[in-house]
Amino acid sequence: MIPKLDVDTLTFEQLAKTIDHSLLRPELTDDDVVAGCELARRYDVASVTVKPCHVALAARLTADSDVKVGTVVGFPHGSHTTATKVFEAKDALANGAQELDMVINIGALRSGQDDMVHDDIRAVVEAAGDKAIVKVILENHYLTDEEKVRACHLAEEAGAHYVKTSTGYAPTGATIEDLKLMRASVGPDVGVKAAGGVRSLDAALEVIAVGATRFGATRTEGILEEFKTRL
Amino acid sequence: MIPKLDVDTLTFEQLAKTIDHSLLRPELTDDDVVAGCELARRYDVASVTVKPCHVALAARLTADSDVKVGTVVGFPHGSHTTATKVFEAKDALANGAQELDMVINIGALRSGQDDMVHDDIRAVVEAAGDKAIVKVILENHYLTDEEKVRACHLAEEAGAHYVKTSTGYAPTGATIEDLKLMRASVGPDVGVKAAGGVRSLDAALEVIAVGATRFGATRTEGILEEFKTRL
To answer: What are phi and psi of A49, to 5 degrees?
Structure first.
């Protein structure tokens, strides 16, 4: 069961451990990843989420820390075949990934192919085994509310650890309404992660207040420094 | 050697055979792909470019036609490991793909890791063998002119058949300046493909005039019907 965070009594450490520091932009260089991992260690956040090609580097840079290494699978369109997603997941685990954020097959969900969506997620969950948790990105921008709820159910049935709102690369990202809908659509053992648009402390506190226990951020330093100032 | 097209004497058939009809949007359903392949056959375009998960479907739908089936590798961020790109390429070939549009490792190019960029492309070219042509997407939006030229040289050295401006998913797409620069940066055996922003007949004729012999389009029907009207 995922413990709910209380915004009124939230500590610095708790807030830091809700952050997946995102280093996914396609143009990021190795130097950017080195700096990002250093920042993640300094603030002791939950994880760095790096591009697949940077997993081995990030694993070395965070080896003696409590910061986990996360990466993405089938990102950001989710349109890869299941076979490719499974290969990519195993490749990431071999390189040291401990968290996998995978994108569902959006077109299959919208085509009503629920079995395919489920099996695609399930295959990645099985590849992850007990080596990594799996967060399932719905990419809400393209979905109706009915489709979001259906995707939540399919992700939970397939054994996902989290459902996640967005990749950050669609025209829109996390909304409070979507987070409430997703929190209500999965059981207590499944977490909800916000991504795309959490750019300030207030935005972070808002997503936590409606039940998100992780969020993706690029402005990690600004959010955490602002929290220190307010304390 | 790629024959240059003459805009003044261009025939309907020649124009149609410069078009890769794009069906890559993450939210596209199976029905959208069926309709798109039907359109591609009706106009006898060069190819349909479908999401990896739709290659087998598109191969069935275009089997008895001159429309080739293309798909994408490492799309749209190019941040996958080389191992995953190679797996994805082989998977696509097994499903019936005849053209592969791969994205370079943008961050590696910007980090000055030219060997890695070359080897990443080369591995996909080798996986394609004589079964598919490989178009190498630079994603110019993130690159300086010097980086675009360097990427063209690396793609040609690695055996690519085309260099391509963009994925269509970065903030900007093909520009005339970039097409001229790319055409000047590769030899006569390497084609140049425009993608992202070719939305009218005039735009199509402009990219052809500066040496593009393929372009990606979603407004294929509008462009070709307008050409018929002008004839």
So the answer is: -110, 110
**Annotated catalytic residue: which of A17, A68, A101, A120?**
A101
Contacts (Cβ under 8 Å, ≥6 apart) of A115: none
pLDDT band at A231 (very low <50, low <70, confident <90, very high): confident
User: Measured between alpha carbons, how far is B4 from B10 in angstroms, rounded to an integer?
Assistant: 11
pLDDT digits (tens, 9 = 90+) for B72-124: 999 999 999 999 999 999 999 999 999 999 999 999 999 999 999 999 999 99
ipTM value for the complex: 0.97
Q: Using an 8 Å CB-CB cutoff, list chain A residues near B76.
A: 26, 76-77
CA distance A211 to A213: 6
- Indicate if the pLDDT at residue B199 is higher than 90: yes
Residue B43 corresponds to which tokens in the numbers above? 């106009």
Of B53, B139, B169, the CB nearest to A105: B53
CA distance B24 to chain A (A): 9
Check residue B103 and give left, alpha or beta (phi > 0: left; psi -120 to 50: alpha): beta
CATH architecture of A12-230: Alpha-Beta Barrel (3.20)
Q: What is the mean pLDDT of residues A92-118?
A: 98
Is the pLDDT confidence value at A1 over 80?
no
Q: Domain ranges in chain A?
A: 12-230
Contact call for residues A70 and A97 (beta carbons, < 8 A): yes
Angle, alpha carbons A51-A4-A177 (nearest 5°): 70
The one catalytic residue among B20, B101, B120, B178: B101
| Chain A residues near any Cβ of chain B (below 8 Å) | 24, 26-32, 51-55, 75-81, 83-84, 87-88, 91, 95, 105-108, 110-111, 113, 139, 142, 169-170
Shortest alpha-carbon distance between residue A153 and chain B (Å)? 19
B88 and A105: CB-CB below 8 Å? Answer: no
Cis bond before residue B76 (omega within 30° of 0): yes
Confidence (pLDDT) at A3:
78
pLDDT at A67: 98
Strand A19-23 and strand B162-164: pairing? unpaired
What residues contact residue B39 under an 8 Å CB cut-off, 6+ apart?
B21, B220, B221
Q: Tell me which chain A residues have a C-beta less than 8 angstroms from the C-beta of B91.
A: 81, 83-84
B199-220 burial: b if 16+ Cβ within 10 Å, else e? eebebbbbbbbbbbbbbbbbbb
Report the C-alpha gap between A17 and A215 in whole angstroms.
10
What is the C-alpha to C-alpha distance for residues A151 and A181, in angstroms, rounded to an integer? 11
Range A28-47 average pLDDT: 98
